[in-house]
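#struct-help
A.M.: can someone run this one for me? Single chain, 339 residues.
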Amino acid sequence: MIRVGIIGATGYTGLELVRLLKNHPEAKITYLSSRTYAGKKLEEVFPSTLENSILSEFDPEKVSKNCDVLFTALPAGASYDLVRELKGVKIIDLGADFRFDDPGVYREWYGKELSGYENIKRVYGLPELHREEIKNAQVVGNPGCYPTSVILALAPALKRNLVDPETILVDAKSGVSGAGRKEKVDYLFSEVNESLRPYNVAKHRHVPEMEQELEKISGKKVNVVFTPHLVPMTRGILSTIYVKTDKSLEEIHEAYLEFYRNEPFVHVLPMGIYPSTKWCYGSNHVFIGMQMEERTNTLILMSAIDNLVKGASGQAVQNMNIMFGLDETKGLEFTPIYP
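D.P.: on it. Structure tokens below:
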């Protein structure tokens, strides 16, 4: 049985980890931490968890003694120093602190210096692309939600050199839970309900993460123009991607079917069928559709994920499974909730 700890257990991704891991046949939650609710039982704060473990302040000695793996479900910049205090524990960080190959990129976009970063054996935790490296990883940087939807949608096309990577346009829409569990006027019901708006246009911090991984796939310079939008729903991301090509839709579709043929969570839809966020609600599944705009030779790719599952906690559990030599679908086999 894998002994599991969660730091940040009362945020949305932390709570999703609790939900998934309580139903995992090979995992046992042995440590839960929350600075805000330390000293309380989790079910006192969130009765829906049915979890009577007592939340505590972060204690590296207790984590090292009681956990085989630790999930850090904290905002960017909060995990790095905590993780460096631990010994003999595998780490899966759901923030951005371990996602970048170059710490200078993190410093530029997140405003923090990561001292000693070059000494950490870390892997970018997108299983469909880095499965072999994840198997032996000590620290996994779990991908961001938007990058997961965009990278998986583009990977086959870039790998097979089917599209022009020079300029990739991404229009993405996310439910409000993607912003995390925090008090901010922008996320009040009256502000979000019956409204659709863009945010962080041309400056979202997920852009360098997308470009890093897409360039590794293509072997070429990639430029992503990314506009995210907030939509009045709780969960889900739908990314629509526009990229130039001189290939036929049939050839591209066949390449996608082949690329993802053995992937348990990635589903390439038949031509003419387009994905919906409702299809992956509460699950680790990804749905990818495509269409060709013949007049301009533009391939239009569409991908749908649940931002809290495949975009965060589900993918983290998938990474844990790989790190401990389990079938990566363990604890994640359930179908989406519909309607």
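A.M.: thanks! Residues 2-142+312-324 form a domain with the Rossmann fold fold (CATH 3.40.50.720).
D.P.: also worth noting: Residues 145-159 form the longest helix (15 residues).
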